[in-house]
Amino acid sequence: MPAAEIRPGQIVELTIDNVAHGGRFVGRYGASEHERGRVVFVPDTMPGETVKAQIVEVKKSFAVAVALEVVVASTDRVEHVWPEASIDRSPAERAGGAEFGHIALPRQRELKQRVLEDALERTGGITRAVPVQAAPGDDRRGGLGWRTRVRLHVDDRGRQGPFAPRSHDVVPVTSLPLATKGIQLSAQLDQRLGGVTAVDYVEWGVDGEVDVIAMEGAPERGRTDTIVEKVGGREFQLDRSGFWQVHREAAGVLTSALRRVIDLDRVDPAGWSLDLYGGVGLFAATIAEQLGERTRVTSVEADEVATDHASENLAEWLGANAETGRVDRWLRELSTRASRQDRERLSKGLVVLDPPRAGAGRDVIEQIVALEPAQIVYVACDPVALARDAKLLGERGWNIDSLEAFDLFPHTHHIEAVAAFRR
Predict the structure, then answer these.
(1) Which of 10, 167, 297, 388 is deepest in the core (most CB within 10 A)?
(2) Is 323 exposed, middle or buried (0-12, 13-18, 19+ CB in 10 A)?
(3) Nearest-angstrom CA–CA distance, 413 and 349
(4) SS3 310
(5) pLDDT tens string 70-83
(6) Which residues are catalytic?
(7) d(CA 51, CA 420)
(8) Phi, psi dihedral angles at 313 (to 5 degrees)
(9) Per residue in 235-248, is it b (16+ CB within 10 Å) or e — as a string?
(10) pLDDT, tens only, 1-54
(11) How buried is residue 225: exposed, middle or buried, by Cβ count under 10 Å (0-12/13-18/19+)?
(12) How far apart are CA 209 and CA 227, in angstroms?
């Protein structure tokens, strides 16, 4: 067999030399003095380790494997924070959702920084150092107890757990170390549930009330119960099943970051600002607080229930409103109906966008640029999407003015960033 040939089911020994986007690590099979070898992506490892792994998928330019055993461990390897996700278990029995849980917390942030900087350079052509900052209290808690929303699936025996990585097989669990103490106390993980496909645990409010929502079939759509979250001194109404930042400190961290980067020398309070993918109006409220009562701000969100709540959350500002619509279509309609005065106000305002993991994309970026706003602030939950959209903005004359990254998902590969752009 040629050195670089590889097949599913094969067990190989790999030295891990890098981290990749998506929580996977990079080894090379068949490497020699003259050849780098075939890339093999392996979870549950880290750079500097040698592991035994089994190949599960082979593509033209890379392969995917599951780690079976650590032959040489990194000094940054620690006991996994979630026993049900440990490498000691069979790959099919490892819980998904804590793929960095075997790595010391400072090293996790270094790896996330590497992923972000690599995405910016490879995809966006941007070279920039971006340290990843911890959320308040996370270091003291060891990166545990931060998750205020947890969805567990239920298997055909009524047992609760997350899916195993890369599958829809439920891994029954007896602990939830990333969840808040309230959820840990409320989750009856030893209870068998009949006729249920999933259970949501939602902790909300300053008192940490926990709702337990059992579901049959697809998650419930439309308005359910209204709950209230507090950020600083401000309350936000939202639907119990609606979107809210998962980390207990995330809303505060991100609104503080937005507040820091709004350029009051460039953004005119008399302008018209936009909060795109606005949810229940969290960032629109921050914009209104910063720019004052004279400002006009519109939140745009595709989810009608979230828009209803945004209208309520923004009611104290006469110039604030919330509209339901897909962002690309709403911007396209705006370009046809905006008056000369509207365009002048838009050119003095701020555009904040917080797109889903796939990013905003070319159409939305081009329409934002056409508005010629005074400033653009991009809140990103995916480094590659941020890099791709930053490149699109850069090609149209907008460069990154500031960029902060936050570890709002400890013990996972996820990361949040706030990038401010100026022409």
Answers:
(1) 297
(2) middle
(3) 34
(4) helix
(5) 999 999 999 999 99
(6) 381
(7) 41
(8) -70, -20
(9) ebbbbbbbbbbbbb
(10) 344 589 999 999 999 999 999 999 999 998 765 567 899 999 999 999 999 999
(11) exposed
(12) 10
